Amino acid sequence: MSELRRAAERVLLGNWTGRSTVPSHSLYPHHWSWDSAFIAIGLRHLSPRRAQVELESLFGAQWQDGRIPHISFSPSVPRDAYFPGPDFWQATTRGGVESSGIVQPPVHALAVWLTHQADEAESIRRGFLARMYPKLVAWHTYLRERRDLGGRGLVAVVHPWESGMDNSPAWDEALARVEPAPLHSFTRRDTDHASDDDRPTDLDYGRYVQLAATYRDHGYDDARTPFTFALEDPCFNALLIASEHALASIAEALSLDPSRHVTAAAELTSALTTLFHDGIFRPRDLRAGQPRAEDEQTTAGEQAAGRLVEVDTVAGLVPLIVPELPQAKELLATARGPKFRLGEVRMVPSYDLTGPAFEPGRYWRGPSWFNTAWLLHRGLVQRGEHQAEELADALRADVLELAGSTGFAEYVEPFTGEARGARDFSWTAALALDLLRPSRP
């Protein structure tokens, strides 16, 4: 364990740029949103102050409308080192930071609260919570007011990248409605650093580019953009609930009224239950069954009925982190069942092992990821039941063994544990460092 700890620390120190941590110097050389939150959760054990700086740096790219962009571009990295880069997004924050225009799952308030707890005296001395709280409130306000595209109180993602689970089979049907950008109109950089077999296909990438270009060409205006892709994702909303609970704790620590966050968490939890079906949470496709022609598409100002996507992924298990979730017992049974085989395969597969689109090595279409394993571990521990704690202990051991044996791989095959994607991956090292601690969430 001490050797694993030192190795994890070397990864985080090696990927530190002075104000933030890159996920991977080769594949992801900029500052990613939800990566940064997971990284801070591990960094707090190495240096609470550095974890605070990590999060402060990320929020330095916050837009005026409150959104946190999924990428903040580093001016020291060549502009064409990553695609889509700053020249594609054409977005500059009020602080002069070039960024993307889409978002990622809101795990940030939870990361801020855990970072504060790592060294409360240092956090208070630096005014960390007092400075972060209004920024977090603005971020959540943007999501709840601008992204409730279905009118049910749930946040919708408008690009697969916003879910963090880019090429999940859950998005296949919705993506099929998108006319892809011509392959000759862009140059991928991800396949320069990773096997084609591990990455999304060129067809999917063309669709990602088209969705992003449409949003960009409408000024990233959620009210005006004709969204072809708009889904209520259970993972995204579960993390927002967890972060609203964290905001309530932050408010109390600042001697502020936490009731608005308690109420928001309760409202979101109630709305989230509408995504539960057949023992798991599923995304709702708000555009399902609607016309494809752009002039007939639903915008943010219109409510969309939509329907649940009958595809089961790890995103549907992440709501285990929601406190007092009514469906937790059924969800745990699904996790242990044939679709995910929790406790039998390596960590937690990203997609139904019995599903027709399962691919054990391709990005989010089957492999097991360290961040989702960490989230499920947290949810299992919060259950406070003997069986759940036994599963949590086994999952923790598996994460730590795989982190060390794969050189902190980005993700692994669920049956063999074979490393896939990047190595020396920051959130893998950070979350291993967190799980090495004896404390419970």
Automatic annotation (TrEMBL):
Taxonomic superkingdom: Bacteria
Annotated TM spans: none
Keywords noted in UniProt: Glycosidase, Hydrolase
InterPro entries, sorted: 6-hairpin_glycosidase_sf (IPR008928), 6hp_glycosidase-like_sf (IPR012341), Glycoside_hydrolase_63 (IPR004888), MGH1-like_GH (IPR054491)
Residue ranges occupied by any Mannosylglycerate hydrolase MGH1-like glycoside hydrolase domain in the UniProt entry: 28-428
Family: Belongs to the glycosyl hydrolase 63 family.
Protein's recorded name: Mannosylglycerate hydrolase MGH1-like glycoside hydrolase domain-containing protein
Species this protein is from: Kribbella pratensis
